[in-house]
Amino acid sequence: MATVKLTNVKKIYDGNVVAVHEFNLDIADKEFVVFVGPSGCGKSTTLRMVAGLEDISEGTVEIDGVVVNDLQPRDRGVSMVFQNYALYPHLTVYENMAFPLRLLKGDKKMSNDEIYERVTWAAKVLGITQYLTRKPKALSGGQRQRVAIGRAMVRDSKVFLMDEPLSNLDAKLRNQMRAEIILLRKKINTTFIYVTHDQTEAMTLGDRIVIMKDGFIMQVGTPTEVFDKPDNLFVAEFIGAPKMNTFKCNLVKDGDKYSVTPFGATIPVDGEKGELLAKKGIPSQEIILGVRPEHVAIAKQAGPGTIKTTILVNEMMGFEYHLHVLTEDETELIVRIPTLNLTEAERAELVTGKPLYITFEGKAMHFFDVNNETNLLYHKDAA
């Protein structure tokens, strides 16, 4: 078993600067949990408190039911991979991976044969067997990161901690290494805590995602939950690329039916969203409406449910267009349109300065309180 439990964990630096506030989280055995958020949100600090590299100001960290607050990092049963590879340049790949095993003392001390067996096993899993005799300077960035991961793997730790391990790699290598981490997780089948600022990494890697802001947990959930049911406006805008379009408008209740009035249009709220609004009895009010770019559609013609815009920029992404459009009250929105959905004539119309009518469906909308920015339908304290 390799469970991790953080209870009311807090980090306070000199000057009463609170970096992490009342962090509570239970991580199950063999679960892959990702901490994600903007720079300075406290995600790396939290990871380092689990590792024992930062003192815990308040609260407790438990690994397999044992409080580890006062244990040294080497005694916690964790391995850590950092953003920088931290490899010894004068040692070969083999010796870099064997280094933590050679430091073991007492009953844990390993023979050379045992060390060789464990290092070659990790090298085989990571596909770096052919590099074992090389020095780090003879390796690419992706290969060095594999060595750093291998050095952590050989320790056979209860928990695997990774602090932005891919951020120093270029985009192509990052995508490749992300896929390799998914495969690695299946092979070693241990508990992972992974820190990143990249929401794509979080969505593709995590069983659950912990989204943080200013030291607070904003939401914990599966990738599907945080994307489809964001707890608040911050989560809604942070998860998804391009980010969700958000703007103020009125939510209008007429009996059990609802509609919204963005930019002079009247669009009915149908499907599950309309049913939930009625079930909760949410009254007419000003709201912040959210619609993801991929859920905005080009309207065939003007009508009461359409919004007139002007194209500012057309970003051709290959498989899709990202259209930056401007409404008549000068609100900028993003529309994401798959290229396969358009004829050549329609594509020719998507140029700067051209008018464009857009619309969206009720089932694609998200409704946020204008005062506290919580989701009116899915926030835990919503009516």
Tag the structure with descriptive keywords:
383 residues, alpha+beta, Rossmann fold, OB fold (Dihydrolipoamide Acetyltransferase, E2P), 2 domains, 6-stranded mixed sheet, 5-stranded antiparallel sheet, 26% helix
Characterise this structure.
- By secondary structure, the chain is an alpha+beta fold.
- It folds into two domains: 4-236, Rossmann fold, CATH 3.40.50.300; 240-369, OB fold (Dihydrolipoamide Acetyltransferase, E2P), CATH 2.40.50.140.
- 26% of the residues lie in helices and 32% in strands.
- The protein has ten helices and 20 strands.
- The strands form four sheets. It has a six-stranded mixed sheet, with helices on both faces. A five-stranded antiparallel sheet has the order 13-12-11-14-20.
- Helix 2 crosses helix 3 (112-126).
- The longest helix has 18 residues, at 171-188.
- It is globular.
- The model has no long low-confidence stretch (mean pLDDT 91).
In short:
This protein has about 375 residues and is α+β, with helices and mostly antiparallel strands.
Helix content: 25-40%
Radius of gyration, taken over Cα atoms and rounded to an integer in Å: 25 Å
Q: Based on DSSP secondary structure assignment, what is the total number of beta strands? A: 20
Total number of helical segments?
10
Estimated structural class: alpha+beta
Question: Quick one: biggest sheet?
Answer: 6 strands, mixed
Quaternary structure classification? single chain
Mean pLDDT: 91
Task: Give the termini separation.
Answer: 39 Å
- SSE order in H/E notation? EEEHEEEHHHEHEHEEHHEEEHEEEEEHEE
Strand order across the biggest sheet? Answer: 6-7-8-3-9-10
Supply the CATH class of the largest domain. Answer: Alpha Beta
Q: In the CATH hierarchy, what is the superfamily of the largest domain?
A: P-loop containing nucleotide triphosphate hydrolases
Q: Tell me what portion of residues adopts beta-strand conformation.
A: 25-35%
Q: According to CATH, what is the topology of the largest domain? A: Rossmann fold
Shape descriptor: globular
Structurally, how many domains make up the residues?
2
Low-confidence stretches: none
CATH architecture of the largest domain: 3-Layer(aba) Sandwich
